[in-house]
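Troubleshooting entry. Yesterday's outputs looked truncated, so today I'm pasting the complete records for two proteins to confirm everything comes through intact. If either block looks cut off, that's the bug. Protein one:
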Amino acid sequence: MADLRGAVLAAGRGTRLQPLTFRRPKPLVPLGAGLLIERPLTALARLGVGRVGVNAHHLADQVAPGLAHRPEVVAVVHEPELEGTGGGIRGIAAALGGQGTLVAANGDALFDFPLAPILAAHRALGALGTLALRRVPPGSPFARVGVDRDGRVHRIAEVIGPQAHRHDLTLGAFTGVQCMEPALVDRLPAAGECDVLRTAWRDGLAEGAPLFGVWVDPPDACWLDVGTPERYLDAHRALLDGRLDPGAVPPADGAGRHIAADAQVEGQVLGPAVVLPGARVAAGATVGPFTWIGAGARVAPGVTLAGCVVWPGVEVTASARDAVLTG
């Protein structure tokens, strides 16, 4: 779709994900068989987006080389000073140029819902902006976006429109995915740090602009924030237990083990687990369950790993449980 543009908001300091981000930026943290940022990039590619902008701050010089293998055109927008979600979208839109719909996603969220129905609804509604929402239980702290029965947005947390206090609003959680027309992007401040929802969306709500929320399908679609080491481990558990597509991994055997054909497994692997190409599990070692061994990693004799993620190329010489082993 030539008129589509994509944005992945990936700038930040990666503070919550430390120590995983000490030596690499958050977008390039290994996730499954790829990189964290590749999940939203792949979702946009499946939508037909060929031009994507990514903003970067911490260790920004690593991002472009780290994405050089991607098939789409990726414009990396360096933010020497953090510009917020609004500033990030503003910079990406300027770098990409054009006047097509901008589909933006947060770079640290994993989701398995398709974007095509969201974009189709956005266009069918004639929306200026559309938020992808997921249903959450009443009273959930994430239930912060209020929509009426037609899907029109009337409130986003403390950002409220003229009808924000209607009693028939349904509250949902924002997934970090949104569609924006150029006229909504143009409502962002011309410079400085800003939040997209508290600037462009606030102005649109105040004026009664056609701003909508669309419920993701299926309703039980998986969505995970990968903001901390604990949630990073949870994400890999989701990849292993079937809540999220594990991506480019070898097929599982009857025991739930995904073992690459060229991996050297002399020890024991307990499923569910993944052992990627070139990795070695030495004799006397035990790996799993819920353990992910990256490409080219080495697990020494006698080591036991359970609930762990081992980054590519790392040599593990001591046993661990529920840990991320980065070398």
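Protein two, checking that the full record survives here as well:
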Amino acid sequence: MKTMIDIYELLKRFGIYIYTGDRLGDLELIQDEVKELYKTRLLESKDYQTAILIIRQEERRVKTGK
């Protein structure tokens, strides 16, 4: 897992689709869903940590406009 596309693909495997039109809102919902997948043991620790890191990097990128 290296990009947001990989995270979207991961969520899609579980039937989770997120698009509200608000990029930061979407990222928050995605992060919540990833946390829930980890809590229910559907995600391994390494995948969880990688996904959270990618999401936070994307949030910083969106906030700074880069």
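Both blocks look complete. Sanity check on protein two: The two ends are 21 Å apart (CA to CA).
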